[in-house]
Prior knowledge:
alpha/beta
Amino acid sequence: MGNHTWRRRVAFAAALLIAAVLAAPLPSAAAQAPDWSGLDARHYDGPIPLRATLIRSVPLNPALAVRGSADAYRILYSTVDQHGDPAVGTAAVFLPHGEPPPGGWPVIAWAHGTVGLGDDCTPSALPRSQRDDEYLTHWLDQGYAVVAPDYVGLGTPGLMSYLNSVPTARGVIDSVIALHQMDVPLSPKWALVGQSQGGGAAVNSARWATEFSAGSGLDYRAVVATGTPANIERIAKLAAPDMRLPAELGPAANSYTAYILAAFAEARPDIDVDAVLTPAGRDAVAKAATLCKPQLDRELAGMTPAKFFSAPLMSLPGISKALDAYLGTPDSGYDRPIFLGVGLLDRDVPPQSTLTFYDQLTANHQNVELRVYPDQDHGGTVLASLPDSTPFLKAAFGQP
Length: 400
């Protein structure tokens, strides 16, 4: 695909893109009270050591482990938040059955999709969805250890900085470095895998993986991303009271709009987001800070994204550069292979989002492999991609 292809795609219908990309991640929300496995870090106020240090590990409640894991843990580690301040993050760790290979198990960092911003939505304190259980079990059966970070602010102090590219990447990468301080046999080789919001997190982490893990002795190898949103900053700049969305979209766009605005406003207090919000928009953003996806969907069922705004978002001084810095995903500078999987029936992240990003990467001579699944939707692409992504990762790890 050449430059002319992606330039056409960048111009696809703005209304559809706003609706679909804001509804990017697949919900995976809390259906029960969180179980912290004896490691409740919501109000952690202890010392924070140097970045990417393992602070504590505990056995994960077996009810929260995925089917394919022989052992599972919950870890607390140090990192840096969206304000550049020392912070802590949590993650689940899953180890495969059987004897580790010489040199230890290679590692996959799993970046999850949207669950919400509140502590009650923390993935490592809740059971995995059936799809994610099957997906992660597949990688465990292939002989990979898995670390599944929650993203800083989920189950730890502060607000999770939703879709914030660089801080998310740092937290994911720091979880891998901290994992290697556990007393388990691990290879220094590792890769990134993510879906939807996590697809974006995985790709952003891939861009900075080598740089942010420098000096750790780790060997980053590749990234696999499905349902990957990209160029979201371009779409966010179109937010306004007169934005038009497809009637069939439903409450999903409302929740994702609220999550983006809540997290962006927290990360950039210098920009007065409230100034362009209606009273209903401000109420929705306040709810987004605590409610998990299904509940927020219900609470905002009567909204539309247009009703959030009393004036165009772009009327705020400095907003354009701020959105680029917060939401932007680089299309160059990757030093390891990229796998992008896209389902043509995806109505959460439109296929054009991934296809356009692929064209941008190839135009910049990045090492990227695209696989298209004509009969798959957003969630179906995850498992459907395994016959392609499995040999891709094997090759990246130098496995036969």
